[in-house]
Structures are given as structure tokens and as C-alpha cells.
């Protein structure tokens, strides 16, 4: 079977599973990779599926530790303290608040390389400040 035909069948299987059957993207990708391996005559290729999924292991660890970190901050009351400090400091200077919020949001992403970790760690810090400043929830979510 030609390679391009295997590729198109893999894409068709992915679209069928992800879009029509509404399976999660990761599962749809795994099944389409498995189908491509079988159609190409390589067998199941379980080793490749496991090794490929470990490519995301570092990102998963970053996200898990970011969630634990935010829960610890929330339980200790630091989130409320940071919110009140930001509000007291920048209430009259909204442009300075915006710059500080952007720096606060970008910092974890610069360190970890994961935008998900940045949103998880700083979204809980920044969202209450922006909403107390009068920014609607939709715009607050778009900014974060």
C-alpha cells in the first residue's frame, strides 16, 4: 500500500474518531497511529506508542506540579494577599497594573516553556484582581 494512502487513511480515522465520535484528541491520535502501523505492515508497534507518549511526560509533570503549587498558595492565603497588594498598589494606575499582570502571566511560561502551566499558576492570581478592577469575566479570561 502506498505511503500517501496510509497517511490519508490515518487522517480519515483521526477525523472520524475526534470529530464525529467526539473521542479525546489523544485517544484519536493513538488509534490513528495504531491503524497506520497496521496498514503499513509493521504490526501493532506498542513500543512506539509508549515511547511517543512519554514525549509529553515532562509537560505533564510541569502541569501537575503547577496545580499542586497553586493549591498550596490558595490554602495558605497567599493568593488573597497578592490580590490585595496588587489592588492597593495599582488601583489608580491601570496601565501599570496591565504591565505587571502581563509580566506575572508570562514569567511561568518563560521558565517552564508551557503555556498551560503559566495559565494554571498565574490565572488564579490575576483573575480576581482584574475582575475587581471592573474587567468583565470574558475579557479577563481572554487576557489570561
Summary of the model, kept short:
This protein is mainly alpha-helical. The protein is 82% helix and 0% strand.
How does this structure look, described?
- With 144 residues, the protein is an all-alpha fold.
- It has 2 domains: 3-44, no CATH class; 58-143, no CATH class.
- Helix content is 82%, strand content 0%.
- The protein contains 8 helices and no strands.
- α4 (57-76) runs parallel beside α7.
- The relative contact order is 0.08.
Unreliable stretches (pLDDT < 50, length at least 5) are none
Number of strands: 0
Helical content stands at over 70%
Radius of gyration: 22 Å
Structural class: mainly alpha
Mean pLDDT: 83
Instruction: Tell me the fraction of residues in β-strands, as a range.
Output: under 5%
Largest sheet: none
Tell me the distance between the termini.
47 Å
C-alpha geometry? elongated
Number of DSSP helical runs: 8
What pattern of helices and strands is seen along the backbone?
A: HHHHHHHH
Give the tally of structural domains.
Answer: 2
List keywords for this structure.
about 140 residues; single chain; mainly alpha; elongated
List the helices and strands and how they pair.
Layout: H1 3-20, H2 25-39, H3 46-53, H4 57-76, H5 78-90, H6 94-112, H7 115-132, H8 137-143
Helix pairs in contact: 1-2, 4-7, 5-7, 6-7
Amino acid at each position: 500500500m502506498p505511503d500517501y494512502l496510509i497517511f490519508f487513511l490515518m487522517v480519515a480515522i483521526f477525523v472520524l474518531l475526534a470529530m464525529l465520535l467526539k473521542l479525546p484528541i489523544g485517544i484519536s491520535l493513538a488509534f490513528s497511529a495504531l491503524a497506520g502501523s497496521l496498514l503499513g505492515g509493521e504490526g501493532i508497534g506498542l513500543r512506539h506508542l509508549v515511547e511517543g507518549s512519554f514525549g509529553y511526560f515532562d509537560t505533564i509533570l510541569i502541569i501537575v506540579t503547577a496545580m499542586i503549587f497553586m493549591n498550596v498558595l490558595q490554602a495558605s492565603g497567599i493568593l488573597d494577599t497578592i490580590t490585595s497588594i496588587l489592588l492597593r498598589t495599582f488601583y489608580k494606575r491601570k496601565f501599570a497594573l496591565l504591565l505587571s499582570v502581563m509580566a506575572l502571566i508570562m514569567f511561568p511560561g518563560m521558565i517552564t516553556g508551557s503555556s498551560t502551566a503559566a495559565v494554571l499558576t498565574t490565572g488564579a492570581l490575576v483573575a480576581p484582581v482584574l475582575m475587581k478592577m471592573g474587567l468583565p469575566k470574558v475579557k479577563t479570561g481572554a487576557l489570561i
